Structure formats: C-alpha cells, structure tokens
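A student in our group prepared the protein record below, which I am reviewing. This is what I was given:
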Amino acid sequence: MEHESRLPVGAIGDGRYRIEKLLGEGSVGAVYRAVDAETGQIVALKQWHAGMLNEEIRARFQREARALATLDHPNIVKVIGHGFVGGVPYVVLEYLEGQTVESLLRGGRPIAPDLAFELMRQTLAAIAYAHKRSVVHRDLKPENIFVARDANKAPHVKILDYGLAKFMGVEASEGQQPLTATGMMIGTPLYMPPEQGAGSSIDVAVDVYAMGCVFFEMLSGRPPFLAESNVELFNAHLRAPVPKLEEALDNMRVAPELQALIDRAMAKKQTERFPNAGAMLDALNTLPDNPLTPISRLRASLRPGPTSNIDPDAGGSMLGWGLGLAVLALGALAFVLMRAC
C-alpha cells in the first residue's frame, strides 16, 4: 500500500535531506536513505505516515525525540536530528549497513553460540545504559537488534526503534500524560511479559523479559512460545512454564547456569526477574565456559581410555598362542624320547 505522505526520490526533506531511495515501509512509517545536504553525510530518515498521527501524538513525538537524542551509546543507533515536513514528524538516524538478528534467524536457524553470546553482551550493555537513564525500550525483539561490522569486521550491535520508549518519571516531572495509558497494550506479543500484555504498569523489567525471550530464540532458532492467536500467546506468557532450552536443541547439553539465567529473565513476576539489564549482563558474564556442549563431544570425553599401550584382548591372544606352543613342544619332546627307547 502506498501512502500519500511517502517522500519521492530526489525530494528535499525539511530543506536539508535529499531522499535517495526507500529502504523499507510499514504500517506506521517509512525509512529512507538520504543525504544531508549540509554535510554530505549519508543518513537514514524515518518518517511517520500522516494518517497515523494527531496533534497530541505529534507534540509527544517531538518531546520524546529530543529526550531520545540524549542516549549516546555505541550500541544504540544515533539520533542526528528530528523535525516536521508538512506537519508530519521525522527523525534522522545514523545510516547502518548489515542485517538484523531477525535476518540471522530466518528459516529457524539458531545463531552460532559464540556469536549469540557476543550479541547478547552488547545488547544488554546498551539496554543497561538506557535503564540507568530511566529509559525503557518496550519493544525489544530480533527485528530491532541490528548487527553491523566495525573497522575490524567484528560484529557490532545497534539497537533500533526507541519509538515506543517509556521515559520513567519524565511525564510526572513535566506535568504531562504518558504517551500510552494504563490498559493499552503496546509492544510485540512474542516477546511481551504478562504485565505488558495485560496493559498494566511497566518498568525496566519488561526489557529484561524480552531479552530472555530473544536470547532463547538466538540459541534455539525459535521463540520460547508460539501460538495461533495473540490471546493464546498471552496465556502462554502468563501461565506456561519457561521452556527448557535443551529440549529445543538437538544433541546439545545446556549448563544449568544458562537455563537459570533464562528462567530468571522470563520469570512471570516482575520482582523475580533481574532488577535491570545490567544485572542480567553480570549474570551472563559469570556463566561457565562452554555453557552449550554437543552431547557427542561429551560422550567422547567420558569414554574410558586404555590403561596401557597393550590391548588386553591382544595380550590374552598372545598368552593363548604361548601356551599352545608350549604344549606342542612338550608333545614333540615326548615323541623323541619314545623313539629313542
């Protein structure tokens, strides 16, 4: 579906950003590759569709975009600027090349354990930074975790889309209403904790729960809960026990400490989860070496080795041959003696 507010190639957004091409489009907005006419820098310009907005949302977008621009962390996509074109808000972001974790998981393939653990460390470090500044993402999922490459070609995480972020205490300090009211569901059901699915009051614990779900999916290739409807999915998050990672993997032994980390992150009660992403990162960094081990390798390491360099069966066979030869020699000697007599 083409939206009336879509910017054509070559257009100048806000008199500064020249649109080069459409990168992607969803129901809420579109993202373009653009060039900053003042600096020549390539940027990503995200613009909301006009039909999705009203005056109140526009005003809150502007306030929260300014607040989001204060998050300066190497693993959070950098906000360069924001503004309005024809009354429609846009935000300018650093331009990234790479792929999302969702793309890495395409086809139900798990991510290699070493890479999955590195991506989790970087993601949790960024979320911990935001949590210290009372910012809750509220929509963490594989689609919003981007994997670029640094100068050494090593994977480098960038968290995307803080558009649903909640700024704890900002509304009260500014005397304004929160962007979403209690009782209104916001987020992605596959990664929502029970309180978020119910539209209840939320805090940093929603991000911890979501990252438990994402970590499970990174390592297994599938989300922890699947259902045919959102209602069934909410019930699973609310009532079903946290699935065992080992049962979702083929021929793999999972260290108890790793399962305990996922269990705690995905606890049904907010108070039973890690208090924030920093605490979850600390737990991740203290896991034992090789928390995922192929069972075939375990069997090989447990198989008893030889106790000497002589095969027992071969030794027994040699003993048998020795006794046989001795018997033959005695028989030959007896025959010679009998002939002599």
